[in-house]
Specification:
The complex is a heterodimer of chains A (362) and B (469). Chain A has 362 residues and is mainly alpha-helical. Chain A is built from 15 helices and no strands. The chains are: A mainly alpha (362), B alpha/beta (469).
Amino acid sequence: MADLRVLDNPIAEGERILTICNSCRYCEGFCAVFPAMERRLNFVEADINYLANLCHNCAECYYACQYAPPHEFAINVPQVLAEVRGRSYQKYGRALDMGWVDAISIGLFASTALGIILDRGDSTRKTFYSVIPHEWMVGIFGALAGFIFIAQVVGFLRFWRETGESLADFFTPSALLQAAKDALTLKNLSSNGAGCTYPDEHHSNARRIFHHFTFYGFALCFASTTVAALYHFSGRIAPYPYLSAPVVLGTLGGIGLLVGPAGLYALKRKRDEHIVDKKQNRSEVLFIALLILTSATGLVLLGLRTSEAMPVLLRMHLAVVFGLFLTLPYGKFVHSIYRTAALVRSALESARSQNQSSGQSH
Amino acid sequence: MPGQNISADVIVIGGGNAALCAALTVREAGLSVTILESAPAEYRGGNSRHTRNMRTMHTAPTDVLTDSYLEGEFLADLLRVTGGQTDEALARLVIRQSPYANLWMRGHGARFQPPLGGTLHLGRTNAFFLGGGKALMNSYYESARKLGVQVLYNAEVTQLQLCDGRFASGTVLVNGVAKQFHGKALVVASGGFESNLEWLKEAWGPPADNFLIRGTPYNKGKLLRILLDQGACSIGDPKQCHAVAIDGRAPKFDGGIVTRLDCVPLGIVVNKHAARFYDEGEDLWPKRYAIWGRLVAQQDDQIAYSIIDAKVVGRFMPSVFPPVVGDRLEDLARAFQLPVDPFVKTVREYNQAVMAGKFDHNLLDDCHTQGLTPPKSHWAQTIDRPPFWGYPLRPGITFTYLGVGVTDKAQVKFEKTGVSENVFAAGEIMAGNILGQGYLAGFGMTIGAVFGRIAGAGAAACVKGLVNG
C-alpha cells in the first residue's frame, strides 16, 4: 500500500494526521489534545505547534488507533507531535544548536573539574563561603538565573504570540488555575487514573510518579535555596543544621531529584521507540544526567560538609549546577514552559466552547 | 512449534469482541482455551477494532449513560429497524443480558466514556468505549494474556472435522504452516464475509466490484462457508449487508469510521446522470445513514455525489478527504465529470421547490420541498451560496447478515442432525438470528458480548459435563 506519510515535514504530516483524527475522534476521552483538535476544522502551523505542546506523549492514542501503522493511513500522533514539538523548541527558543550546548556544558564541567583537581585545597577552609565567596556565588548564579528567566519569558511570548491569543487572556485566573491543576497533577498522563501507556502498551502510572518525584524534587530544592537566601539576608550564615528548613527541604528535594530522573531514565531505556522523536534523545538524556549529578553531588556535599573533601565537593556541585542552569533554556526543561502555556490555552478554549454551547438551545 | 498440534479444552476461532468474550469466559471457568485469529497481531479484532460503542439496557443513569433505556423500548427500536425479522426470544436475551455484559467487560479492563462529540443522540442508549474498539480489544487481549489464554495470530482455519454436528478437530494454517487442532468444544466467532470479494460478487453480481469494504481484509467468512457447507442452518440473505454511503475516495479495505460522510441530509445527492434519486431529508441522519449504501449501490456504476453549499459548511463532522470545491455549480459538475446542464437544472428545480422554513439540523424541521420528485422532507435549503462543495459517494460495506442458526445457548443448529452439542457460535456469524435486516447503532457489539459470554459458558459447561460424566 502507498505510504501516505509526509516524512520530511512534520508540520505537513501533522496536518495530514490531524485531519484524519478529526474525522474519527475515538481518542477524545484520553487527553486535552483531542478536544482541542475538535475545536478546529483545519490545521495551520500555529495550531499544530499548540497541539504538539499540549501533547504529553503518553502514547495511549497510538496503541488505541485503528489507523496506526501498518495501516496505510499510518497515524502516529505521539511521534509526529514529538517531532513538531522539538522543532517548536528551536523556533521559540531560537535555540543554539544542541551539539554546541553539549560541548559548552561538557567543556565547562571538565574545566571546573580540572580546576578542582589542580586546587590543592586549604584544609583550614571550613565554610562554603571561604571556598567561594557568597557574593561570587550569588553573582554568578543570579546572573544565570536572570538569563534563564529572560530566555524562558521570550520563549513563552513567542509561543503565545503564535497562538493568536492576547496576553491579557493568558492571565485569566480560572484558566491559570485549571492549567496549574492539570500540570501539578499531570492529569494528561493519568488516562483517567489507569496511567499512560508508557514505556509500552500496558497502562502504568510509573512515568507520572517519577515525573512527580522530579518536579517536586526540583521545587523543594528551589524552596531550599530561597529559604537559605532569606536566612542569609537575615544574618544566619550557612552551613545550617541538619534539621533546619533549607537542609530538610534540600535533602528531600535532592532525593526526589535522584529517584525521579533515575526512574524516568530507566523507563526511557525500555520505551517503545515508535512513539518518540529519537532526535531529542540526547538532550533528554543530558537533562536527566545533569539533574542526577546535581542531586547526587548535593547530597554527598551535605553528608561530607565537615570533612576535608568539602571544598572539592562544593566546587563540583556548583560546576554541575552551573552546567544544568546553562543548558536549561536549550534543553528538555523548556517543555515545562510551553506545556503549561498550552494547558492555559486549552483551559481558555474549553471554557469558551462551554459558554458557547450553553448559550445555544441544544 | 512447527508440525506440533494445537490442543485445548476449548478452541475459539476469531479474534474480535465475541471471540474474546467467549475465550475469557472459558478461562474464567478454569479451562484451557486457544484463540485462532486469522489476522496478524496488529490487525487483530476483526470489525470490533473499528467500533466505538455498545447499546446497553439500563434502568437508571450510569456513569456514562443518561436517563434509562428499558427492555421494551430497546426491543421496539430493534423491531422497527428489522421490520420484525428477529428471533424475539434471542433478542430479549441479548437486551436483558446487556448490562451484565457491560459490567463483566469492565472487569476485563474495558473502559467506557460519555458519548463522543457529535454523537450526543446516542448518549442515552450507547456506552462508548474509551478510545474506541481497538482500545477495547487491547484490554481484552491484555486480560487474556494475564489469565493465560493462548492466542495464535496469522492462524487461518481451513477445515473442520464435524461428525453429526460434533466438533472433533480441524486444520489451521499458522503462518502458512498446516497444523491440526483439537478441543472438546468449539466456539466460532469469526464474523461475516464482508471482505470476501468473490462471495460478495456471487451475491450482488458486477456492482460488487465497486463496493468498498470498511473493515479489515481478514473477514473472509471462511468459517461461515465451512459451517454452511457442512449443513449448518443458514440464517438470512447473502445479499443483505450493512452498507453506508462513504467517501468514494476511501481505500478498498479498512477505511473505517473516517470515510463516512454526514453531509447527505444537508444538501442533495445526485447520480452520475446528475439526477436526484432519494429523499435526502427523510429522517434524522442516524436513522437513515445505513440505507444510503444500498441506494448508491443501485445507481449506475455505484457512484453518487453529495452536493452542499457554503451555508451548511461546518455543520457536519469533518471528512477525512477534502471536498471538491467550485465557485460555480458548473465547476463542480465538471470536476465530477457530471453532465453540466442536467446538473444545473437538477439544482435549479430543487431550489425552486424549497419552501421557506426554520432550519434546524438537530430535529425534523419544517424545511421541505413542494412538488418535487423525489421530495426532500426536511432540512431543504436552497443550494445557491458559493463556494459549492461536493463529495463522491460509494457503497461502503460494514458487515454481512448471512449467518448460522443458533439456540439460546449459542449452540449451532444443523439441518439434519439438529442442535450441536459442542459447536457454538457468537457475534456477527450468528447476528442474523436477531438482526435479520436493518441496523441499530452499537447493537452488533451487544450481540457479540452477550453471545460471546453465552457461547463461552456453554462451551465450558459442555467440557465440564464431559469430564464429570
